[in-house]
Write a structure and sequence with these properties.
The chain is α+β, with helices and mostly antiparallel strands and about 280 residues long. It contains eight helices and twelve strands. The protein has a four-stranded antiparallel sheet. Strands 10-11-9-12 form a four-stranded antiparallel sheet. Strands 1-2 form a two-stranded antiparallel ribbon. A hairpin with a 5-residue loop joins strand 1 and strand 2. Helix 2 crosses helix 5. The longest helix has 16 residues. The protein is globular. The relative contact order is 0.19.
Amino acid sequence: MRSSNAFRFEHWGYCSINWGKDRRLLASHACARATFFVLPVLLAFLLSGCQIGASLSSSAVTYVTFTPSTSYTTAMTAITNLGLRHTSPCKNNVIVPDGASTRWTRWESLDEQSSFDGGLPRTLWVTSTVLAPSDWPTRLQSLAIVSSLTQSVNMSCGAYQADATPTPGVPYYLTMAEAGAYAHVSIGLESKGSPALTYDQAVTALNDLGLRLADPCREQQLQGRSVTASKWTPVGQQQQYAKTRQLVVATTTDASDQWQGQAQTIAKGTSVQTPYKPIC
């Protein structure tokens, strides 16, 4: 666990500044040291008429604040519809004991539903996938459930634990080389014949496992290029799910090496087909 004293350390904090929807200047939980250095720069920008945080990089991990009434599953559906996914920017903070390697970093779920639905502010770290439009920050900011976007300057992270060798039964993060597998997930049925999970619940459960919505044929056409705003179409699979209870997903570096078994446990009767290669 990241809370283990033997494997825990923290940066001294983080401070970021951006403009919210109502053009008010917003500041994150800033520590005194950051404020001391940032304020002179901030004043200089304001006096010169510049806007801070007016534009966001489409490739950076972004901190999204949602409105107080937004539920975790609603937020997850909104970001996945745009070709984004939930992530953890702290995952590279690994304490490596003697003889260990970051290759065997112990996996942790992305699930933040309890803290998200149980308190304020309601925030998530998100990152883009190959299916996101080039102007996704603008599209995300325009959603009624989104209050603000911030790209961090620095932040406080607890450390993840790495092992010298894999421990049987313990899930570990996939490497860049291992991620990217496609899968076809069929959600089980309840006794009355309806899906065991709603679309929002299914997408959220899979995203919490580090699995993103995917479109293998579309991604093959893109060949790594970003989707231009004019040619982009929503990534959500609501219509397909309503007819078949099935979702097409891909693994990411937020997934574990036990992702197939984990996905089968999100609802009774759920099955996973991988590798998945549709006819394009």
